[in-house]
Amino acid sequence: MWNNDEERTESFLDEESEGLCSLSATQRLYASAACLLSGIVLMFLSFVVFAIPIKFALLFTFGNVLAVGSTAFLMGPEQQLRMMFDSVRVYATAVYIGFVIHSKILTLLAVICEICALVWYCLSYIPFARRIVSDLMIRFCDTEL
Asked: What transmembrane ranges does the database entry give (predicted)?
């Protein structure tokens, strides 16, 4: 079992990956390490600007892309996508993709809640508007706000 893993690890930098680009194995290793390090640095920097949502999102997203993409230098993007679902990596891949999707859903839910709160807040300045909307919600949705 270990022999297969060792052979697979050694094949990352074999000549079959040479079709990816004209970089040598050492250059690809350095590029991968630099890409990974840059990604980690960007992810940590994103927490410095956590209070500024756009900067946080950009730094964190680019950091993730660089960190995940760093392995493409070792074996190429096509082989990386195939190997993401190997038995050794399938759980980490599923958790990573799950949290990416989960964060998008939670962000969308937060935006919807924020819009609803804004509408409710604005209705509070119009006399009887919240009561009218509440009565309409009871009538159409059988729900009371």
From this structure: 29-49, 56-75, 95-123
Question: Residue 59 burial by CB count (10 A; 0-12/13-18/19+): exposed, middle or buried?
Answer: buried
Burial of 45 (0-12, 13-18, 19+ CB in 10 A): middle
Phi/psi at 135 (5° precision): -65, -40
Where are the domains positioned within the chain?
Answer: 1-73, 84-145
**Which of 116, 113, 121 shows the shortest CA–CA distance to 137?**
116
**Is residue 69 within 8 Å of residue 81, measured between CB atoms?**
no
DSSP 28-50: HHHHHHHHHHHHHHHHHHHHHTT
Whole-prediction pTM value?
Answer: 0.60
Question: CB–CB of 32/70 below 8 Å?
Answer: yes
- Stretch (H or E) spanning 131: helix 129-141
Read off the pLDDT of residues 5-62 as tens digits, 9 standing for 90 and up.
Answer: 444 444 555 555 445 568 888 898 899 999 999 999 999 999 999 888 889 889 988 9
